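Format notes (please read before filing issues)

Several people have asked whether sequences and structure tokens are stored in separate files. They are not. Every record keeps both together, in the order shown below: the sequence lines, then the token lines. Line labels are part of the format and must not be stripped during preprocessing.
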Amino acid sequence: MKIITFVLIVLCLSSAVLAVDIDSDIVNEVNQDGTAEVIIVLEDTEEFLDDIDVKSDKSILGFEETHYDLDLNREYDTIDAISAEITEEGLEEIKNNPLVKEITLDRINKIFLDESVPILNISETMVNSQLIDGTDHSICVIDTGINYSHSAFGSCTNESFISGTCNKVIAGYDWCADNNGCTTEDNDPEDVNGHGTAVSGMVASTNETYTGVASGAHIVAMKVCNSQGNCKDSDVLSAIEWCTTNSTKYNISVISMSLGGGQYTSYCDSEVNSQYATLINNAVGKNISVVVSTGNTNGNNQANGIAAPSCIKNATRVSATDKSDNMASYAFRHENFPDILLAPGSSITSSKLDGTFGNAGSGTSYSAPHVAGAIALIQQYYNAIKNLSLTPAQLIQAFNVTGKRISDSDTGVDFSRIDVNATFNTVDATSPTLSLISPTPDDNTVTTSNVSINLSSSEILATPLLEWNGTNESMAGSAYHFETAKTGLAKGNYTFRIYAQDFIGNTASTSERTITVANSLPTVSSATVSPASATTLTNLTCVNGTVTDSDNDSINLSFVWYNDGISNTTTQVLDSSSTSTGESWYCGIIPNDGEGNGVQVNSSTITIQNSVPGLATLLSPSINYTTNLTLDFDWSDVNDTDGDTLSYTFLLSTNDSFIFSTVNVSVSETNVTQAVSENSYFWRVDSCDASDCSSSSTSAFEVDTTLPVVNITSSSLNNSYGNLSYSVFETNLADCNYTFRNASVIASARLFNTTTEVELFEQYNGDYNLSVTCTDFANNEASTSQLITLNDTTLPTVSLSTTSSGDEEVDVKLTATTNEPSTCRYDVNDAAYDTLLAMSTTGNQTHEVTKEYTEDTSDTLHVRCRDLNGNTMQTSTTVDVIVDVDEPSSSESSSSSSSSSSSSSGDSSSSSSRTTPSFSEEVETIQEVQEPRESPQKVFAEQGIVTLQELLGENDSEDLRNMLEEAQAALSNENYVRVLELVEQAQSLGVQAVNNLDEVQDAIEGSVLTGAAIFSGAKDFAGKIPWLPVSIILFLALLSFGYFRFLKPATWESKRVFWRKKSKKDSNAFSQEVYQLGLQRKK
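Then the structure lines:
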């Protein structure tokens, strides 16, 4: 029982210890509004957020989440803390959470509202040719943002700022992008209040009249306040963290804040949000001064304390003086903060939000940027002279020690108003440390006539002075290192020392040194043999490098040559007569100034080389093929640069590697006569002296005495061409030709194939001699011939076509095309060839005539042809012509043209009396009604097969079965025209009579036939259908004529041409749609 009681007591005590003190302001705000904006300092942020109920950004079914502990605003990167909106339940939930170290209200801070710069005693200061204006330093201004387009900041555009290319305002961030509740962020710190623009102008304006304290410094703008100048703790903390984290990237040396709240009489590190102290200490740890204004009063409490966060221990606190350089009545201060720095804060003219300049008002807000700019100046200055930076504490001390004392009767403290120039002069009170470094000669040493004196300093120096034998002279160099070279010194004793001062005026000097200059021996930098490679014909020269004598004595050079290490001659030039192939030579050079010899320098060794003989040029034979069996081989003589006597080796081989040479002859002349046999050869010539040989290029040729073997393997003639096949055996065949001749014809041409077609220029019967001649590359020639006979008894074939043109007078042009040279005749009545009318002939195979018509008519034109051997067509080929002549019109004229075609061989029987269109002719003529489509032949042929199958089903006969089998075979072989011909033959048997009647009815219903066409068609059908009364056909024709003449006049012209053309045409031009219109007889 006692143990249990003890555990309960321990648990109660533990709970009491773990509970976090809650600011009454937080409790009051939660009780009043239900939530409060707070900053929570944690042991571990990630673990805390995992345990707490954080409001989700997502809605559920359109309703926002209402039950949560806190609404997270921001997590910090470098500290374990968050800012959030907390509910009453959340506050109760976390106050005993062991991960929670501190909960503070996210308080609202307020911004503290040409003559100022001179008061600070800032004058143009140069250090080592560098203007001290804050260059290379950046000041992070945490305020209401900035108008970076203002001329004081370089008139930067929004696009340039966002891309990071502005010269003055180089970076920034907006923690209050909505300019009101500060709930959104972006990367454009656009000022909508004006306070931040004025503060930034006081820091670094480049305007010539209203110049900032550090006009060369960069601005990094942090916007943390809304348009009314209210700034949340959480945003200010985020800005301090951002500036510290990015300090290295932007070289930020100062953070300036002209804002705050409350009033404190001692350090407030533990009284306000503890993260102010944490983040300011982090910045100071990175040598960044955090400058904060102390705040302003609206009453009489100016000496009762200073605002947070200026009360943070490591902050640089700044209060204000007035126009008379007295303590400003409105400025916060307190006796417990004697390190407060003062700067002008009353009626300051600066950059305004609208792009102009004007009175920004008064307040410690405007004192802080003066000090921030001054710190940038001091840091640049100290870096220039010491290559170091001062710490924030050292800067505060320096400003306090060197500033003007301003007495404050309210606190009894004499505060320091900063004096920049005084701080410059007080920063460095130490003299530089001077050191003489190598190669400066030591004291009491003997040296040469050339002396170099080198100085090193512990800090940047103004120009030091060298005292040389009692006379001062300047030294070359800069910053930490200087030097002077003394050359050509006469023999004797010399004294020297160096005086120097830093830029503050601190002086220093080295101790005096004495040196003795004695005689200096001359030197030669190098010895070189020229040329670098040589033969026995080359003179060698020993070339000296740079000759140096510090005493400027006259120098003589001695030369010596060494052959294989043994001294041989003492001239500078070694004559070629002294050298031989294979010897090794080098030279040495010895300088002398009259008092002694310098050190001898030797060249590298070269070996005398033999000159390789040149290459012989092969002159003849220059041919690729020859029939000669004895050849003269000639080549050019070779000049040897060494003058050696040369010999030549002639090599002749059947392979280009010359491994098995058939001939290898050494001669002193440049020609050889050599017998050869039939073969392929390679030859070259080697030019040789006593040491080396060089080979010429290789030339090739072939000896060929064998004639080609030529045979005509087959030949034949017909009425158009001769066919020739031949064989030839020849390895080096160059060309073959044929000759074809009889008494009146000679034809010849080059042959490209061993089987070829020989075209006859004229095709008369008779005997022809056909010969073939072949030649090889050695011009060996062989021929063979054969006698063949042409006996042409084949009749010519002809195809006909017609074209017509004109309207009132129609010209019909008849064209006959024969398969061989012929003459053709024609007439409207068939007759023997000799009695027909002549046609004009073009090119032996095209024959034409034009016939004129003046009235409507129809003709059948008959054509017969005769070839050159008298073979004459015994039957004519015909083509039907229908002429439609338009009557003259007073208001308009029309034109028409038509064409038809027919073909036949001379021995076929054809009739010109047929007027009823066949199945194939129907398909051919219908193509005028519609535009053609791609390749419908197969479709037509397949329909023809269906038609034959239906006919066979209605009338089973052996003829129809044979036709169907042949048509199916033709369809498989893609012979679609033959399929149509077989269907046509089936029509001639009369088995399509009923279908013809269906076609007439279909034409009436489908608006295809004109009345006249139906009338003509009915007559033809009646001839084929004797059992059908003609009267029915006439009645249907009249009925159709009336319908199309009066009810369908618009389609009259398109239908009347239906029956005009009956000759066969290539079914490639047929249209599928027209085929469906005119040929679907199954309906």
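For reference, the curators noted about this record: Residues 510 and 834 are 141 Å apart (CA to CA). The mean pLDDT is 80.
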